Amino acid sequence: MDLQKFLQMGGYAAFVWPAYGLTALVLLWNWWAARRSEVDAQTAARRRNAIAQENRS
Amino acid sequence: MSWTWFHKLASPPHAYRILGRMAPWFGWAALALILLATWWGLVKAPADYQQGDGFRILYVHAPSAWMSMFTYVVMAVAAGVGLIWRIKLAHGAAAACAPIGASFTFLALATGSIWGKPMWGTWWVWDARLTSELLLLFLYLGYMALRASFDDPQRADRASAVLALVGVINVPIIHYSVEWWSTLHQPASVTKFDKPSIEIAMLIPLFIMIAGFQLYFGWAISRRLRGEILRRERNAKWLEEAA
């Protein structure tokens, strides 16, 4: 396969690549945001547990 | 019929564990399918006779648009279940859907706009399809803003569930907008009852990408719902083991 030709996308490079790039960005953002939302909740729950344990002792 | 399986499934500790076990499978399968579909769509699929290689935007645009509506329906159903049967887990699932759906909607609008420029000669037009999809984005954003405006999670659940349910009317409007009104956007070529008007060689990567996006949604909702469960189960005993 001719790489140069592939990158030119038949003259639509200026549209095809930004569309795919943006998709990759949004999927990556979502991945990061979902993971962070979970980890934040876990950290908060652990903190609450620690406080509860301290109060008990 | 016994409903114990349902109650077990809907119990937060059980759901938390199951979701944690499923998420990696969803994630890796999604990654594999999305990469495969990207290669297939960019390299292997033949160029369109009219749009040349420009049509390849289809493989990111149509799955995003599909997911934007699919996620909304999941969100509305979850909100409805939460409202009717007062299941906290269902409200949590609805809340977890919103940011995922909003990002797919943004993606559908943005890639559509990028595709519109070379093919229609304009980034944007206020036709029924584009306008109703933009409304979908505002519904997601409104839903999230409404949730954020309550301090009490139970009131946030109930108020936002009503909004989610009212907004679901927009989903069939988006889908049929290209039939009901004269739009610049083309009519459906895959989701219709007679056979799709796309060549099979172009259709395969599209279906793989849609499957990849669905699995990706499965991964994201699992992660976010686990977070929602922890946030809702403030003082539950099992939290100590879970976290």
Number of helices of chain B: 9
Order of helices and strands of chain B: HHHHHHHHH
Beta-strand content estimate of chain B = under 5%
In total, the number of domains of chain B comes to 1
Main sheet summary of chain A:
none
List keywords for this structure.
heterodimer, A: 57 residues, mainly alpha, 2 helices, rod-shaped, B: 243 residues, 9 helices, globular
List the helices and strands and how they pair.
The complex is a heterodimer of chains A (57) and B (243).
Chain A: H1 3-8, H2 13-56
Chain B: H1 4-10, H2 12-44, H3 58-85, H4 88-120, H5 128-148, H6 153-167, H7 170-180, H8 200-232, H9 239-242
Helix pairs in contact in B: 2-8, 3-4, 3-6, 3-8, 4-5, 4-8, 5-6, 5-7
Task: Report what the structure shows.
The complex is a heterodimer of chains A (57) and B (243). With 57 residues, chain A is an all-alpha fold. Chain A has helices spanning 3-8, 13-56. The mean pLDDT of chain A is 92. With 243 residues, chain B is mainly alpha-helical. Chain B has one domain. In chain B, α3 packs antiparallel against α4 (88-120), α4 (88-120) runs antiparallel to α5 (128-148) and α5 (128-148) packs antiparallel against α7. Chain B is globular and about 65 Å long. Chain A binds chain B through residues 1, 6, 9-12, 15-16, 18-20, 22-23, 26-27, 29-31, 33-35, 37-38, 40-42, 44-46, 48-49, 52, and chain B through 34, 38, 42-43, 47, 52-54, 56-57, 60-61, 64, 99-100, 103, 106-107, 110-111, 114-115, 117-118, 216, 219-220, 223-224, 226-231, 234-235, 239-240, 242-243.
